[in-house]
Amino acid sequence: MKHIVSFTLAVLLPVAAAIVSCNSFREPEMIFDTDMGNDVDDALALDMLYKYMDAGKISLAAIMLSKEGPAAPEFLDVMGTWYGYPDIPVGIIRDGADCGPDSLNYTRKVLDMKAPDGSPLFARSRSCYEDLPESVDLYRQVLSRAANKSVTIVSVGFFTNLARLLESAPDRHSRLTGRELVARKVAGLFVMAGNVADTTFAEYNIVKDIPSAAKVFAEWPGPIVISPFELGAGIKYPASSIENDFQWAGSHPAVEAYRSFLEMPYDRETWDLTAVLAAVEKEDTTGYFTLSPEGSVTVTDGGTMIFKEGEGNRRYLYATPEQEEKIRARLMSLVTCPPASRNQ
């Protein structure tokens, strides 16, 4: 496609200059919106965010769940406890998209793992998850307290929470509507969604809640950067790393999640990891990604996504073969490094 430009600070000025000013915010606030449990890339993406917290690059203000069921918030508790961040607020969803069986692939398996003495293999910091706030309420609370244009949202699950946030009315947290809160407080939205290369492909994060995805792409008042299906599909996290690079870890919840998700050995696509990398390292001058021109996004009734260059402030990412290798190396360096909590 012509007019594609390199993904650097200069190119992203309309998006990234508002997202974070290094002079103003040493640790930019982020919100992670995830359907944790449907695919293991969510667990590896969260691992990356904890490592960025360790490095002082971000402050993870909240984690929002777009997947229902008790296993997802408990798994987040296990992850937060193991990585040394048990107090990050978590929002849950009720009456959300149909997510299928409750975490049969990996979250429940990790939660049920036992130590030799029969105790849970991984510690928890909470004993009850039903009293967690709903994601939209937590969104409004976090945004109401944030400085203007200081929050970046990374959404790697369904669009239900974001659509409900846009529709939300003034409440005890803020006199602003949800759309007004987003316009005032949110600097940028990075999403893993859709397929730009194949407009006949109905990608999972969109097709599970088509009306919400359509609403967000049509009505979100700020810029959106898309990490599409084909980007993460072309960059796989290697099983050899899971098998060989974690001797330091002992029992590691993200590694056990990977091992439990599919029959090993398998290389897994990095859909959600690329969205996190782009959101945090958008000002990196090493050129991990290439960014499309601005345009608009239409979500069809069948759940496919159509990008049209021209009017609008939606963009999508892609990578050359050289960039793909650079991205893979960066992802592996983050995921395999010990978190600060394990170095104590």
Throw out a few tags for this protein:
single chain; two-stranded antiparallel sheet; 14 helices; Inosine-uridine Nucleoside N-ribohydrolase, Chain A; 13 strands; alpha/beta; 344 residues
Provide an overview of this structure.
- With 344 residues, this protein is α/β, with parallel strands linked by helices.
- It has a single domain, classed as Inosine-uridine Nucleoside N-ribohydrolase, Chain A, CATH 3.90.245.10.
- It is built from 14 helices and 13 strands.
- A hairpin with a 5-residue loop joins strand 11 (295-299) and strand 12 (305-309).
- Helix 2 (41-54) runs parallel beside helix 13, helix 5 packs across helix 6 and helix 6 packs across helix 9 (210-219).
- The longest helix is centred in the last third of the chain and has 16 residues, at 321-336.
- 50% of the residues are buried.
Tell me the strand order in the biggest sheet.
1-10-13-7-6-5-2-3-4
State the helical fraction. 25-40%
Unreliable residue runs: 1-26
Kindly state the number of beta strands: 13
- Rg, nearest Å: 19 Å
* Helix run count: 14
Distance between the termini: 49 Å
Task: Tell me the CATH topology.
Answer: Inosine-uridine Nucleoside N-ribohydrolase, Chain A
Question: What's the name of the CATH homologous superfamily?
Answer: Ribonucleoside hydrolase-like
Total domain count? 1
Largest sheet: 9 strands, mixed
Strand content: 15-25%
How does the helix and strand content classify structurally?
A: alpha/beta
Which CATH top level class fits? Alpha Beta
Shape type? globular
- Order of SSEs: EHEHEHEHHEHHEHHEHEHHEHEEEEH
- Second CATH tier, the architecture: Alpha-Beta Complex
Average pLDDT rating: 91
